[in-house]
Amino acid sequence: MQEPLTNINMPRYWRQRLAAAILARHARKPNVTNHTDSIRVVCISDTHNYQPNLPPGDILIHAGDLTENGSFDEVQAGIAWLSSQPHPFKILIAGNHDVLLDEAFLQKHPERRYGQPKTKKDLDWGDVIYLQDSTITLDVPIHTPNRAASQPQTRKVIIHGSPRTPQYGISAFQYPPTTGPSLWSEQLSHHQDHTTEPKPTPGLDILITHGPPKLYLDHRDIHRAGCPYLLSEVSRIRPRLHVFGHIHVAYGREDVVLDGVRQAHDDVQIGWGGWECVAWMVVLVGVPNT
User: Fold this and answer.
1) pLDDT tens digits for 261-286?
2) Which residues, given as ranges, of the chain have pLDDT below 70?
3) Which end of the chain is more exposed for a tag (fewer CB within 10 A), N or C?
4) 38-258 maps to which CATH number?
5) Is the peptide bond before 198 cis (omega within 30 degrees of 0)?
6) What is the end-to-end Cα distance of the chain in Å, rounded?
7) C-alpha closest to that of 139 among 159, 123, 121, 112
8) DSSP letter at 179?
């Protein structure tokens, strides 16, 4: 896969401007319908030892950096807090601060054990589900009033979680940017686009990563810190929900339709696509007003 371009040149600038204008004209919104089997997912990240009051829900997701320093005591206190929440399902992935959970990192940097002999194996997880480059299928109860006995009483929700983020400083679960293509393609290769039929395996409902994909809630000053290779896989598998954190100043929520127009736009913005992508956007959408 081609490396994203980082140099600034005027032709690329105008391609990006035009692609952004075409996407704004396209402006599709997600097709959200009211389902009788809807569930509520509470999403948090980067709490760094803070334990806020949380709203109720069916699934609680913490997208990493539960702690500040990643010591055993900090991690255990954070897990105990999550486990005490009333949500039926509590899902946790690690972040780059949660060094206790990355044994490979600690072998290289034993000083980050802070003199504590206890390891990840000594943690009491309670009813917290920890995902590390792994997938789980939940059977979430449906709470619709007057539901017929013949109707399903649970809804299956497939969730994949990964703590990996691009290398920045010395922290846990980080990868050199050059390994991004193989890391994400190998990890997510067995997941399919949930909107496609037929499919060999069920689609992924929720993807949890500590870091963002490129272009989405990843602004840090003038720099976009997201991973383009993660974006490529997200565009392919199109999960219903992607939960992430890591870039504190870019927190928020964004509703996105991952269709061909947006993929062409993203390729232009990253530097993977040229005027041919802009031309394809024009074919699909039309020329924006100037």
Assistant:
1) 999 899 988 888 889 988 998 998 87
2) 1-10, 29-36, 145-152, 192-202, 287-290
3) C
4) 3.60.21.10
5) yes
6) 34
7) 159
8) G
